[in-house]
Amino acid sequence: MLRENIPVRDGLQWKIDAMLDRIEWAKAGEAYYYQQAISEIDGAWVVTNGQRKLMFATYSYLGLLEHPKIKQAAQEAIVKYGTGTHGVRLLGGTLDIHLQLEETIARFHNRDAAIVFSSGYVTNLATISTLVGKGDWVISDKWNHASIVDGCVLARGKFVRFRHNDMEDLERRLQQAPPDAGKLVVADAVFSMDGDIFPLPEAVELCRRYNARLMIDEAHSLGVLGETGRGIEEYYGMEGVIDVKMGTLSKTIPAVGGYIAGDEDLILYLKHAARGFVFSAALPPPVTAACIAGFEVIETEGVERNHVLRRNVEHFLTGLKERGFDTGVSVTPIVPIMTYDDDRAMQMTRYCQEHGVFVLPVLPPAVPHGTSRLRANVTAAHTIEDIDFALDVFEAAGKEAGVI
Q1: Does 145 reside within a domain?
Q2: Enzyme catalytic residues
Q3: Are both 37 and 184 inside the same structural domain?
Q4: Within 10 Å of residue 310's Cβ, how many Cβ atoms?
Q5: What's the total number of domains in the chain?
Q6: 3-state secondary structure 129-147
Q7: pTM of the model
Q8: Cα–chain-centroid distance for residue 25?
Q9: Pairing of strands 51-55, 38-42
Q10: SS3 of residue 167 by DSSP
Q11: What is the pLDDT of residues 150-186, one digit of tens each?
């Protein structure tokens, strides 16, 4: 007979206990601010637990969360299609607006075709593990997102990494691969914890020289890099050089999902072989319609919003540095405020949250030990006055925590 209310003690429990200890540590310091429920959104401001705060933990880089055209498209899709579909895309789950979204993405990125997945995480996991098999090599930047890493681990090929943004080390890895092996080089366009940009020109030259395909994750560069927000190719003036272009639909595009854009053969292959597509339900109609409208808004308003975003990023970065903060290597809306110490990161977070700035810490294992930080994300929805308010709060928090 099973004993009730007695926890199982086995070789897996230590992982659970370790996480619970970290959570309790944060709560004991009154600095546990994860998974706060947001009840209202007003531009760059939110309400959580009855307190109005300026949001600096968002991925809505162009400030499209409340865009009326996008909201209207989602509402109209519910009226026409309902809230769900008949299942997976390969069978009965494909709607005409799913095809329209993929055509929109392909046109936006000047590619033959596109495939849409249920999330950005699934997109990387499914694509990498489908393309890379036994005898192949997948070569990944050490600072890549967890979804890329997990896709590389799931793939049955040889998984190696190169030092962050180090093209000499990338070449060394390419030289180690057998000449006849399939080779996939994978990197973020903008790195999600540090805000720096991948050196695309050098990587493209190496991939061409060593007959490797290049996959770039544009999750944090869509709407951010390039004059019209089309990403890293536009930023470097190198349209069409990426073989496997990945993007998400949950950051600048205010919905959920992910996609791959590429040549027609690649996309057709993924639609029949990628398990994350074949065995996942289709995106709901309102989400799909919102994504289509999101790309249309970027095409019509992207230049103006991107200009505001770049102004805000420069103002924020300059202000932090003038106040004595270390912002690492960031040149984008993702701005690390380095504390290097877990306790100081939590202390700064508590001060900011209590004084009207919604920001969160990033601690190991999300970043290497000794590199703890607050990650502050700037958007086009922020005004200069908003940013000045936040800078004052960060400065006071940094002084209290002994960071500056």
Answers
A1: yes
A2: 192, 220, 251
A3: no
A4: 16
A5: 2
A6: HHHCCCCCEEEEECCCCHH
A7: 0.94
A8: 27
A9: unpaired
A10: helix
A11: 999 999 999 999 999 999 999 999 999 999 999 999 9
